[in-house]
Amino acid sequence: MMMLEVVFTISIFVLTSSAEKLSIDGQRVVDQLTKLATFSDHQNPAVTRILFTPNDMMARSYVKELMTSAGLTIREDAMGNIFGRFEGSDATLGSVLTGSHCDAIPLAGMYDGTLGVIGAIEALAALKKAGYKPRRALEVMMFTSEEPTRFALSCVGSRAMSGALTSEYLSSKLDENGTSFLEAANAVGYGSSTYHQLLQDALVPKGKIDYFVELHIEQGPELEKESKDIGVVTAIAAPAALKVEFHGDGGHAGAQLMPLRNDAGLAGAELALAVERHTLATGSVDSVGTTGVFEIKPGAVNSVPREARLGIDIRDIDGVRRDKTVESVRASAKEIAERRNVRHTVTLVNQDPPAICNSDIQTAVAEAAKELGLSTKSMVSRAYHDSLFMARIAPTGMIFIPCKNGYSHRPDEFSSVKDIQQGVHVLALTMAALSGGSWPQDKSEL
Amino acid sequence: MMMLEVVFTISIFVLTSSAEKLSIDGQRVVDQLTKLATFSDHQNPAVTRILFTPNDMMARSYVKELMTSAGLTIREDAMGNIFGRFEGSDATLGSVLTGSHCDAIPLAGMYDGTLGVIGAIEALAALKKAGYKPRRALEVMMFTSEEPTRFALSCVGSRAMSGALTSEYLSSKLDENGTSFLEAANAVGYGSSTYHQLLQDALVPKGKIDYFVELHIEQGPELEKESKDIGVVTAIAAPAALKVEFHGDGGHAGAQLMPLRNDAGLAGAELALAVERHTLATGSVDSVGTTGVFEIKPGAVNSVPREARLGIDIRDIDGVRRDKTVESVRASAKEIAERRNVRHTVTLVNQDPPAICNSDIQTAVAEAAKELGLSTKSMVSRAYHDSLFMARIAPTGMIFIPCKNGYSHRPDEFSSVKDIQQGVHVLALTMAALSGGSWPQDKSEL
Ligand SMILES: [Mn+2]
Ligand SMILES: [Mn+2]
Ligand SMILES: [Mn+2]
Ligand SMILES: [Mn+2]
């Protein structure tokens, strides 16, 4: 009899756990991600979605449509950040905010960022449907321009929300057609009359957000390699970006003799290799350095390059070590320019500190995963996220799910329906735990 | 009495020399070059004029207008080569042909090629005005697409005229919009129904051209440095062009760890530096090697380059040495691709033999210069010219004039009115000598 009772108790526990109350439809999330991917400047599977272009605007409409269907209250700020709110019982508390981005660099995939928006809407819809009553309000959001494609500035929306952006700096950023952010925003119905107003509108008042959590694909191979279901992010690597230009005198590829040349393209080639060399020199697998932009002019086969423009990205989980790499790259640019007799400029686009994830959120994520019987791995995010800036104004955490081969920023980026379903489920339970609300037949109420 | 007679005879000789009979207006040539430069896709002083674009078509109209004003009979072939003819007295002989090109690579200057067209029209107009009667017909022409900008193939018009182009090869060349040469030609009123007919129409029959001479700016610094007026070209360097592509797997600039990368951009950077290294390794100043095209994809600062496309130009006055450099570059491409674990392809775009200039023409140019009291320098042309292909079907020569600092293929390309006037004068006298015609009061008729 004693033994039977034990079994019975365990059974009751399983039936009434919050995990069991939630129904997360992974396939629906994938269907919605697939639909979202059709708003692209390149043919699928490639996804290209640039800030405030027609495809970005169609993606925004679709996101708002899904928020409305989920019964969320929509609000947008002047920067174009979109919020969907599920009101809580205690208006004196800040919200539990989640979200990510829907813009995509040229020829990217369909999961980066989008999962953290579409998946979060599914999470909130499921909580609502299950009768969960939030204490802290639950909010899902889509950030404006996490990717730096259009204005050579990443995380534009979250920088503005966290006060990490000045009018001077934002107004100095023009796209390749010379359009400013404010002009671009005003043209699609966002924006404001001045940069000051624009940033003022987006700035989050103190106490407005109690927790921020972002669900994202790992964009690295570790979870898959170790067969772990969920990544509990402990820190976000410190990113820096440099723009380097070399200017030489060009000339005819046949007539300009080698000793008289100052080929800007070759200066650029040397610097790209120096970026790799300095990054490897740290000896740490956590240091990464990339020359992702390399453009030369005039770009004709019979003309000596007279101009080279490089975009360099350097990241590390150790901010000090990252800064040393940045300095080494600067020094190489100078040395190469002097040796090759070309003029050069180095512009520091950004050099942000790393972010440490909040331990309460890490615990909540780990417990949610445990409740669902999922394995976890504590890990660092090497990719850039809006979380990096949200961490400046709120306790912040991230949830990773595996992605195939660690591929990201490419058309064959992929996460399975099962991994997506599990990630969304963990997100929902984490948010419920952080909200402090109640389940309809919560065990604690028995 | 005896002495006086001698003085008198010399005086007669000076007055009646052919040089004195010609009036060449250097300023008019510069004015016409300046007008021609306005037909440009970029704002002056930069000149960009791409084959069969509206600006190229306007330039062609202007050239034909000038030919008509000079009293020349105009003919065009299916390739778009334009001829202006001054008939000779002996129809059984071939013509003395001169000419160059009017297309311009992106952001080039206003003298490259154009001088050899506009200056030659002035030369023929002056000969006509002076009453010179050609024996061999005198012809000036504008070649179609000497520059490789649109179809990645240089000297398209002269290759066709000299039989150096097959239907298969020309039809395989598409511009960046996927348009073929035949489609592009037909769209502007040139062309034909088939590639076979197109090339047949342009092919020059045997005996049609007795001499070809091209007037051109040096595109190098030697004449200016040595204060010489006229370059007598002895040979044209052997050009070769390669297209190399590297393909890697790309990835996220933050998340793709360094040991797992196969960065196509870095493979390209190494190859560009290898081109320079192999070129310098010949130890000869006559070897030049250039990576003038360097494009990477996706070209985003936060994305590891997954594709690099290089356009490489290698020239030498020694064909065998040039071929060795080409082979070294091929070997480096292979070695780099294997070491960096990227896929690669090498396409040989062209690998033409050098051309030796005809000695009778060199003598005629040197004598014309001497008659005008101008200094000369025998020299090699390191730049590519239509002359390279004309040399396959006719005795060919080139006349160079100095250009400032040796600059070419850039907006500040410059030759003085005086140098232009002298070059056109030498061209006119050279053509008259090669034509074998008569001056109105020629000494030989006395
Ligand atoms: Mn991304
Ligand atoms: Mn992302
Ligand atoms: Mn040229
Ligand atoms: Mn030329």
Describe this structure in words.
- Chains A, B: Homodimer.
- Helices cover 38% and strands 22% of the residues of chain A.
- Chain A has 15 helices and 15 strands.
- The longest helix of chain A has 21 residues, at 319-339.
- The radius of gyration of chain A is 24 Å and the shape is globular.
- The two termini of chain A are 23 Å apart.
- The interface between A and B is large, with 75 and 75 residues.
Number of strands of chain A: 15
| CATH-defined architecture of the largest domain in chain A | 3-Layer(aba) Sandwich
Helix percentage of chain A: 25-40%
The CATH superfamily of the largest domain in chain A bears the name Zn peptidases
How many domains is the backbone of chain A divided into? Answer: 2
Strand content of chain A: 15-25%
Largest interface: A-B, 75 and 75 residues
Tell me, what is the CATH class of the largest domain in chain A?
Alpha Beta
What is the CATH topology assignment of the largest domain in chain A?
Aminopeptidase
Based on the structure, what is the oligomeric state of the protein chains? homodimer
Order of helices and strands of chain A: HHHEHEEEEHEHHHHEHEEHEEHEEHEHEH
The poorly predicted ranges of chain A are 1-16
Report Rg of chain A: 24 Å
Shape call of chain A: globular
- Summed over residues and divided by their number, the pLDDT of chain A gives a mean of 93
- Span between termini of chain A: 23 Å
Provide the list of bound ligands, each named once: manganese (II) ion
> How many helical stretches of chain A?
15
The secondary-structure class of chain A comes to alpha/beta
Main sheet specs of chain A: 9 strands, mixed
